[in-house]
């Protein structure tokens, strides 16, 4: 791809991320959804505020608002970030010392990476022994599949033959929402490629919300649903996703534990 085209896509994604970040933070129900997600994500980690936590793909993410100790990173040059780098080369990034990070977290980022398995393998170089990678991605249940497939702007392609994106145009412009689901739920041979660097037998899964994210309007719009209605509904929605994930869940959380010394 011509360098001028790459630069145009980068600038487009940069401006889009700035707008999305402003929209997210102005959406009260969406900020509540993210707060509850992060509390669930970190619930098994004691003293998370004392840990060295690196977030990959912090462009739009509000994580640092709730947990100020998080090291926010992205490939896009944004003012609120602590580190700017391409996570595909995380193992070569000297600004982060090897084995110095307790937790690496990604929320709806893995499906944008060209080679997720390659990233996950390289990430262990920065993790302390026993450190964790926490991942949040779309889960395809009976309810969520048609929503992600037909109503969301990002593609869903279950026909891929390898755990990679065939084409990468820009930081936000390329994705396959099905890719993380396939790695962790339908393609065990893809996941087994990580068995020498993660203790896969210790992997934990959680399922998070059904329609609660959609009813916030997401980033693109805000539904006029009062918080006093949304929050009680959220409790029921989360319960359904947790108890009957194959029917209701829209997101899953994975906790991978590093096995490399």
Blueprint (SSEs and pairs):
Elements: H1 3-26, H2 28-42, E1 53-56, H3 63-66, E2 71-74, E3 83-84, E4 101-107, H4 116-123, E5 127-138, H5 144-151, H6 178-186, H7 188-191, E6 204-208, H8 227-243, H9 245-248, E7 251-257
Parallel strand pairs: 1-2, 1-4, 2-3, 4-5
Antiparallel strand pairs: 5-7, 6-7
Search tags:
7 strands; Rossmann fold; 7-stranded mixed beta sheet; 16% strand; 261 residues; alpha/beta; 36% helix
Question: Could you explain how this protein is built, in words?
Answer:
With 261 residues, the chain is an alpha/beta fold. The protein has one domain: Vaccinia Virus protein VP39 (Rossmann fold). 36% of the residues lie in helices and 16% in strands. It has nine helices and seven strands; from the N terminus they run H-H-E-H-E-E-E-H-E-H-H-H-E-H-H-E. The chain has a seven-stranded mixed β-sheet with strand order 3-2-1-4-5-7-6. Strand 4, helix 4 and strand 5 form a beta-alpha-beta unit. Helix 2 packs parallel to helix 8. The longest helix is centred in the N-terminal third of the chain and has 24 residues. It starts with a helix and ends with a strand. The mean pLDDT is 94.
